[in-house]
Amino acid sequence: MNDLDSKFVPEHIRNDILVKKILPSSVQLPDFQCPITGIPVRIRAVSTSVCESQRVLQHAKSAYDFSIRHLRDMGVSLHPPRTFRITLVCHPSKRFLPNGKIPLSPVHINGGVTSRSSNEAHSLVFRKEEMIKVMIHETIHAMRIPLCHTALDQNFEFLASEALVDALACEVYASYLESVFGFRNVRMVMQEHMKIQSDKVYTYLRYVNPHEHTSAFAYYVLKASIVTNADLMARLVFSLSDKDALVQLVKEACDRIAPVFYDSKGEDSLRMTPVFIEPYM
Ligand SMILES: [Zn+2]
Fold first, then answer.
1. Which residues sit with Cβ closer than 5 angstroms to ligand 1, an ion?
2. pLDDT band for position 1 (50/70/90)?
Protein backbone atom coordinates (compact mmCIF):
# COMPACT_ATOMS: atom_id res chain seq x y z
CA MET A 1 0.00 0.00 0.00
CA ASN A 2 2.11 2.91 -1.19
CA ASP A 3 0.99 6.52 -0.72
CA LEU A 4 0.84 5.97 3.03
CA ASP A 5 4.06 7.97 3.15
CA SER A 6 2.24 11.05 1.93
CA LYS A 7 2.49 14.03 4.28
CA PHE A 8 -1.28 14.19 4.13
CA VAL A 9 -1.64 10.90 6.02
CA PRO A 10 -1.55 11.54 9.79
CA GLU A 11 1.38 9.78 11.44
CA HIS A 12 -0.69 7.86 13.98
CA ILE A 13 -2.77 6.33 11.19
CA ARG A 14 0.33 5.46 9.18
CA ASN A 15 1.94 3.87 12.24
CA ASP A 16 -1.17 1.90 13.11
CA ILE A 17 -1.20 0.35 9.67
CA LEU A 18 2.47 -0.09 8.86
CA VAL A 19 4.03 -0.59 12.29
CA LYS A 20 1.33 -1.98 14.55
CA LYS A 21 -0.62 -3.59 11.72
CA ILE A 22 -3.94 -3.20 13.48
CA LEU A 23 -5.99 -3.41 10.29
CA PRO A 24 -4.85 -6.64 8.71
CA SER A 25 -8.02 -7.86 7.01
CA SER A 26 -7.89 -6.70 3.47
CA VAL A 27 -10.27 -7.64 0.68
CA GLN A 28 -10.00 -6.59 -2.94
CA LEU A 29 -12.57 -6.52 -5.69
CA PRO A 30 -11.43 -8.03 -8.96
CA ASP A 31 -10.58 -5.32 -11.49
CA PHE A 32 -13.70 -4.09 -13.21
CA GLN A 33 -14.18 -1.86 -16.18
CA CYS A 34 -15.66 1.52 -15.36
CA PRO A 35 -18.94 1.61 -17.34
CA ILE A 36 -18.57 5.28 -18.27
CA THR A 37 -14.84 5.87 -18.79
CA GLY A 38 -13.94 2.32 -19.84
CA ILE A 39 -10.81 2.27 -17.67
CA PRO A 40 -9.91 -0.63 -15.34
CA VAL A 41 -10.66 0.14 -11.70
CA ARG A 42 -9.51 -1.77 -8.62
CA ILE A 43 -10.96 -1.14 -5.16
CA ARG A 44 -9.44 -2.53 -2.00
CA ALA A 45 -10.68 -2.26 1.58
CA VAL A 46 -8.60 -2.72 4.72
CA SER A 47 -10.19 -3.10 8.14
CA THR A 48 -10.16 -5.21 11.29
CA SER A 49 -12.45 -7.88 9.82
CA VAL A 50 -13.02 -9.52 6.47
CA CYS A 51 -16.73 -9.03 6.97
CA GLU A 52 -16.40 -5.26 7.32
CA SER A 53 -14.00 -5.05 4.38
CA GLN A 54 -16.53 -6.85 2.21
CA ARG A 55 -19.36 -4.61 3.36
CA VAL A 56 -17.34 -1.47 2.67
CA LEU A 57 -16.31 -2.75 -0.75
CA GLN A 58 -19.89 -3.46 -1.74
CA HIS A 59 -20.95 0.09 -0.92
CA ALA A 60 -17.81 1.62 -2.40
CA LYS A 61 -18.41 -0.11 -5.74
CA SER A 62 -22.02 1.02 -5.76
CA ALA A 63 -21.06 4.61 -4.84
CA TYR A 64 -18.26 4.68 -7.42
CA ASP A 65 -20.56 3.54 -10.23
CA PHE A 66 -23.25 6.01 -9.19
CA SER A 67 -20.79 8.91 -8.89
CA ILE A 68 -19.19 8.50 -12.29
CA ARG A 69 -22.57 8.15 -13.95
CA HIS A 70 -23.98 11.11 -12.05
CA LEU A 71 -21.02 13.36 -12.88
CA ARG A 72 -21.36 12.41 -16.53
CA ASP A 73 -25.10 13.14 -16.42
CA MET A 74 -24.37 16.55 -14.85
CA GLY A 75 -22.32 17.35 -17.95
CA VAL A 76 -18.98 17.27 -16.14
CA SER A 77 -16.11 16.46 -18.46
CA LEU A 78 -14.03 13.65 -17.04
CA HIS A 79 -10.33 13.16 -17.77
CA PRO A 80 -9.66 9.69 -16.43
CA PRO A 81 -6.23 8.12 -15.98
CA ARG A 82 -5.48 4.85 -17.79
CA THR A 83 -6.00 2.85 -14.61
CA PHE A 84 -7.51 3.80 -11.29
CA ARG A 85 -6.94 2.20 -7.88
CA ILE A 86 -8.84 3.04 -4.73
CA THR A 87 -7.67 1.90 -1.28
CA LEU A 88 -10.07 2.32 1.63
CA VAL A 89 -8.50 2.01 5.08
CA CYS A 90 -11.23 1.76 7.73
CA HIS A 91 -9.27 3.49 10.49
CA PRO A 92 -11.41 4.61 13.46
CA SER A 93 -9.62 7.94 13.94
CA LYS A 94 -12.14 10.84 14.01
CA ARG A 95 -11.66 14.41 12.90
CA PHE A 96 -11.31 16.87 15.76
CA LEU A 97 -10.32 20.37 16.75
CA PRO A 98 -7.21 20.66 18.93
CA ASN A 99 -7.49 21.64 22.58
CA GLY A 100 -4.54 24.01 22.55
CA LYS A 101 -3.69 26.88 20.26
CA ILE A 102 -1.86 24.78 17.70
CA PRO A 103 -2.49 25.23 13.95
CA LEU A 104 -4.97 22.93 12.27
CA SER A 105 -3.16 20.22 10.32
CA PRO A 106 -3.89 16.99 8.42
CA VAL A 107 -4.07 15.03 11.68
CA HIS A 108 -7.24 16.95 12.56
CA ILE A 109 -8.93 17.11 9.19
CA ASN A 110 -7.68 15.05 6.26
CA GLY A 111 -9.30 11.81 5.19
CA GLY A 112 -7.83 11.00 1.82
CA VAL A 113 -5.17 11.73 -0.76
CA THR A 114 -4.91 11.12 -4.49
CA SER A 115 -1.76 10.73 -6.53
CA ARG A 116 -2.08 10.93 -10.26
CA SER A 117 0.19 10.49 -13.24
CA SER A 118 -0.98 10.39 -16.83
CA ASN A 119 -1.12 6.60 -16.63
CA GLU A 120 -2.40 5.85 -13.21
CA ALA A 121 -4.30 7.38 -10.32
CA HIS A 122 -4.41 6.05 -6.78
CA SER A 123 -6.85 7.36 -4.21
CA LEU A 124 -6.16 6.45 -0.61
CA VAL A 125 -8.95 7.05 1.93
CA PHE A 126 -7.75 6.48 5.45
CA ARG A 127 -10.56 7.22 7.89
CA LYS A 128 -13.76 5.26 8.34
CA GLU A 129 -15.59 8.47 9.21
CA GLU A 130 -17.23 9.83 6.04
CA MET A 131 -15.40 7.22 4.01
CA ILE A 132 -17.72 7.13 1.01
CA LYS A 133 -18.03 10.91 0.71
CA VAL A 134 -14.25 11.21 0.85
CA MET A 135 -13.93 8.48 -1.78
CA ILE A 136 -16.19 10.53 -4.07
CA HIS A 137 -14.08 13.64 -3.37
CA GLU A 138 -10.87 11.77 -4.25
CA THR A 139 -12.49 10.26 -7.35
CA ILE A 140 -13.25 13.79 -8.56
CA HIS A 141 -9.55 14.64 -8.12
CA ALA A 142 -8.57 11.47 -9.97
CA MET A 143 -10.82 12.42 -12.91
CA ARG A 144 -9.17 15.85 -13.22
CA ILE A 145 -12.31 17.84 -13.68
CA PRO A 146 -11.39 21.15 -15.32
CA LEU A 147 -10.54 24.04 -13.05
CA CYS A 148 -11.49 22.28 -9.86
CA HIS A 149 -7.79 21.90 -9.29
CA THR A 150 -5.31 24.35 -10.62
CA ALA A 151 -5.84 27.69 -12.28
CA LEU A 152 -8.45 28.79 -9.79
CA ASP A 153 -6.19 28.70 -6.74
CA GLN A 154 -3.76 31.39 -7.84
CA ASN A 155 -6.53 33.94 -7.33
CA PHE A 156 -6.85 33.23 -3.61
CA GLU A 157 -4.78 32.79 -0.47
CA PHE A 158 -6.45 29.46 0.21
CA LEU A 159 -7.18 26.37 -1.91
CA ALA A 160 -10.51 27.43 -3.34
CA SER A 161 -10.51 24.33 -5.53
CA GLU A 162 -10.80 22.13 -2.43
CA ALA A 163 -14.05 23.85 -1.48
CA LEU A 164 -15.46 23.31 -4.97
CA VAL A 165 -14.40 19.67 -5.12
CA ASP A 166 -15.92 18.98 -1.73
CA ALA A 167 -19.14 20.86 -2.55
CA LEU A 168 -19.47 18.75 -5.69
CA ALA A 169 -18.67 15.57 -3.74
CA CYS A 170 -21.39 16.40 -1.19
CA GLU A 171 -23.90 16.98 -3.97
CA VAL A 172 -23.07 13.64 -5.60
CA TYR A 173 -23.13 11.87 -2.23
CA ALA A 174 -26.54 13.35 -1.37
CA SER A 175 -27.92 12.17 -4.71
CA TYR A 176 -26.44 8.73 -4.10
CA LEU A 177 -28.07 8.44 -0.68
CA GLU A 178 -31.42 9.53 -2.04
CA SER A 179 -31.34 7.32 -5.12
CA VAL A 180 -29.82 4.15 -3.75
CA PHE A 181 -30.98 4.21 -0.11
CA GLY A 182 -34.17 6.21 -0.51
CA PHE A 183 -33.29 8.71 2.21
CA ARG A 184 -35.26 11.93 2.31
CA ASN A 185 -34.12 15.42 3.27
CA VAL A 186 -30.48 14.43 2.92
CA ARG A 187 -29.40 17.85 1.69
CA MET A 188 -31.22 19.65 4.47
CA VAL A 189 -29.63 17.43 7.15
CA MET A 190 -26.20 17.81 5.56
CA GLN A 191 -26.53 21.56 5.40
CA GLU A 192 -27.48 21.85 9.06
CA HIS A 193 -24.36 19.90 10.02
CA MET A 194 -22.21 21.89 7.66
CA LYS A 195 -23.32 25.15 9.28
CA ILE A 196 -22.35 23.87 12.73
CA GLN A 197 -18.99 22.59 11.49
CA SER A 198 -18.34 25.78 9.62
CA ASP A 199 -19.03 27.86 12.74
CA LYS A 200 -16.65 25.74 14.79
CA VAL A 201 -13.80 25.89 12.30
CA TYR A 202 -14.34 29.56 11.56
CA THR A 203 -14.29 30.35 15.27
CA TYR A 204 -11.10 28.34 15.73
CA LEU A 205 -9.33 30.02 12.84
CA ARG A 206 -10.47 33.48 13.83
CA TYR A 207 -10.19 33.42 17.62
CA VAL A 208 -7.74 30.63 18.47
CA ASN A 209 -5.16 30.24 15.71
CA PRO A 210 -5.47 31.58 12.15
CA HIS A 211 -2.68 29.37 10.80
CA GLU A 212 -3.33 25.98 9.27
CA HIS A 213 -1.29 23.33 7.48
CA THR A 214 -4.26 21.91 5.64
CA SER A 215 -7.34 23.27 3.86
CA ALA A 216 -9.72 23.51 6.81
CA PHE A 217 -11.02 26.93 5.79
CA ALA A 218 -11.82 25.69 2.29
CA TYR A 219 -13.13 22.28 3.35
CA TYR A 220 -15.43 23.51 6.08
CA VAL A 221 -16.11 27.23 5.93
CA LEU A 222 -16.06 28.08 2.24
CA LYS A 223 -17.62 24.77 1.19
CA ALA A 224 -20.51 25.32 3.63
CA SER A 225 -21.03 28.81 2.27
CA ILE A 226 -21.48 27.35 -1.22
CA VAL A 227 -23.54 24.29 -0.34
CA THR A 228 -26.00 26.17 1.87
CA ASN A 229 -26.87 28.59 -0.93
CA ALA A 230 -29.01 27.17 -3.73
CA ASP A 231 -27.92 29.80 -6.25
CA LEU A 232 -24.20 29.20 -5.69
CA MET A 233 -24.64 25.42 -5.85
CA ALA A 234 -26.54 25.63 -9.11
CA ARG A 235 -23.89 27.92 -10.59
CA LEU A 236 -21.12 25.59 -9.43
CA VAL A 237 -22.60 22.66 -11.26
CA PHE A 238 -23.02 24.67 -14.46
CA SER A 239 -19.66 26.47 -14.32
CA LEU A 240 -17.14 23.69 -13.82
CA SER A 241 -15.24 24.56 -16.98
CA ASP A 242 -15.53 28.33 -16.63
CA LYS A 243 -12.69 29.76 -14.56
CA ASP A 244 -13.99 33.33 -14.41
CA ALA A 245 -17.41 32.18 -13.27
CA LEU A 246 -15.81 30.02 -10.56
CA VAL A 247 -13.61 32.87 -9.32
CA GLN A 248 -16.70 35.07 -9.05
CA LEU A 249 -18.57 32.28 -7.29
CA VAL A 250 -15.80 31.85 -4.70
CA LYS A 251 -15.72 35.61 -4.08
CA GLU A 252 -19.47 35.63 -3.44
CA ALA A 253 -19.15 32.58 -1.19
CA CYS A 254 -16.49 34.43 0.83
CA ASP A 255 -18.80 37.44 1.17
CA ARG A 256 -21.44 35.19 2.72
CA ILE A 257 -19.15 34.14 5.56
CA ALA A 258 -20.21 36.22 8.52
CA PRO A 259 -18.31 36.37 11.79
CA VAL A 260 -19.79 33.98 14.31
CA PHE A 261 -18.74 32.86 17.72
CA TYR A 262 -19.05 29.26 18.75
CA ASP A 263 -18.20 28.18 22.27
CA SER A 264 -16.31 25.00 21.59
CA LYS A 265 -15.76 23.96 25.21
CA GLY A 266 -16.33 20.23 25.57
CA GLU A 267 -17.35 19.86 21.95
CA ASP A 268 -14.44 19.05 19.71
CA SER A 269 -15.89 16.65 17.17
CA LEU A 270 -15.96 17.71 13.54
CA ARG A 271 -18.28 14.97 12.52
CA MET A 272 -19.70 15.79 9.10
CA THR A 273 -22.87 13.78 8.93
CA PRO A 274 -25.16 12.05 11.39
CA VAL A 275 -24.86 8.28 11.63
CA PHE A 276 -27.98 7.49 9.71
CA ILE A 277 -26.64 8.77 6.45
CA GLU A 278 -23.56 6.59 6.61
CA PRO A 279 -25.54 3.47 5.84
CA TYR A 280 -22.59 1.23 5.09
CA MET A 281 -21.18 1.23 8.63
ZN1 LIG B 1 -9.16 17.32 -2.11
1. 162
2. low
Domain count, the chain: 1
What lies within 8 Å, CB to CB, of 79 at 6+ separation is 143, 144, 145, 146
93-103 per-position pLDDT tens digit: 999 998 888 99
Rounded distance from Cα 159 to ligand 1 centre (Å): 9
Q: How far is the CA of 67 from the centre of ligand 1 (A)?
A: 16
CATH number at residue 245: 1.10.390
Distance from the CA of 142 to the center of ligand 1, in angstroms? 10
Contact 171, 259 (CB under 8 A): no
Q: How far is the CA of 279 from the centre of ligand 1 (A)?
A: 23
Interval 74-93: pLDDT, tens = 988 899 999 999 999 999 99
pTM of this structure: 0.90
Range of the domain at 45: 2-277
Gap from CA of 136 to ligand 1 centroid (Å) = 10
